[in-house]
């Protein structure tokens, strides 16, 4: 476990070359807000490519990245091109992306909630966009509002480095790490 923690620390040091706004989620996941970063002429897409390459060059680990202007979409995007890939949702394409997004992809929508939504005929964000907010609140309580907001592309949460616009979400694919060095083994 110490080798994983050491690698995770090294990865966070790579992230810090691009931004101080890093919100770790676990040893192998984090949100980065690179909105004000001057690196790569401010291109979050290019920063993601450079960071992924640095992780591979320095640690021989692959990383997936999602780039989006909204925090929860960055997380979804990071899951779309695994392993060792990157997916970008440009601001101009958020609406079209959400129209087709299955509700089960939204963080917090598990199997039970997905089934309850399906019973109402709600399968995609487009379905929820057309659904009455009051009915969602009655059926799902506070989560009904969260679901409605996410389906509209609303996520006011900011990347918070206390827990340790362009946002990136990261997922590192761990291979078995040798405890005798920094080399990674399959």
Automatic annotation (TrEMBL):
<keyword id="KW-0227">DNA damage</keyword>
<dbReference type="GO" id="GO:0006260">
    <property type="term" value="P:DNA replication"/>
</dbReference>
<dbReference type="InterPro" id="IPR043502">
    <property type="entry name" value="DNA/RNA_pol_sf"/>
</dbReference>
<dbReference type="InterPro" id="IPR050116">
    <property type="entry name" value="DNA_polymerase-Y"/>
</dbReference>
<keyword id="KW-0515">Mutator protein</keyword>
<dbReference type="GO" id="GO:0003677">
    <property type="term" value="F:DNA binding"/>
</dbReference>
<keyword id="KW-0238">DNA-binding</keyword>
<feature type="domain" description="UmuC">
    <location>
        <begin position="1"/>
        <end position="110"/>
    </location>
</feature>
<keyword id="KW-0808">Transferase</keyword>
<dbReference type="GO" id="GO:0005829">
    <property type="term" value="C:cytosol"/>
</dbReference>
<dbReference type="GO" id="GO:0046872">
    <property type="term" value="F:metal ion binding"/>
</dbReference>
<comment type="similarity">
    <text>Belongs to the DNA polymerase type-Y family.</text>
</comment>
<dbReference type="Pfam" id="PF00817">
    <property type="entry name" value="IMS"/>
</dbReference>
<dbReference type="GO" id="GO:0042276">
    <property type="term" value="P:error-prone translesion synthesis"/>
</dbReference>
<keyword id="KW-0460">Magnesium</keyword>
<dbReference type="GO" id="GO:0006281">
    <property type="term" value="P:DNA repair"/>
</dbReference>
<dbReference type="InterPro" id="IPR022880">
    <property type="entry name" value="DNApol_IV"/>
</dbReference>
<dbReference type="GO" id="GO:0003887">
    <property type="term" value="F:DNA-directed DNA polymerase activity"/>
</dbReference>
<protein>
    <submittedName>
        <fullName>DNA polymerase IV</fullName>
        <ecNumber>2.7.7.7</ecNumber>
    </submittedName>
</protein>
<keyword id="KW-0239">DNA-directed DNA polymerase</keyword>
<keyword id="KW-0963">Cytoplasm</keyword>
<dbReference type="InterPro" id="IPR043128">
    <property type="entry name" value="Rev_trsase/Diguanyl_cyclase"/>
</dbReference>
<dbReference type="InterPro" id="IPR053848">
    <property type="entry name" value="IMS_HHH_1"/>
</dbReference>
<keyword id="KW-0235">DNA replication</keyword>
<dbReference type="Pfam" id="PF21999">
    <property type="entry name" value="IMS_HHH_1"/>
</dbReference>
<dbReference type="GO" id="GO:0009432">
    <property type="term" value="P:SOS response"/>
</dbReference>
<dbReference type="InterPro" id="IPR001126">
    <property type="entry name" value="UmuC"/>
</dbReference>
<keyword id="KW-0234">DNA repair</keyword>
<keyword id="KW-0479">Metal-binding</keyword>
<keyword id="KW-0548">Nucleotidyltransferase</keyword>
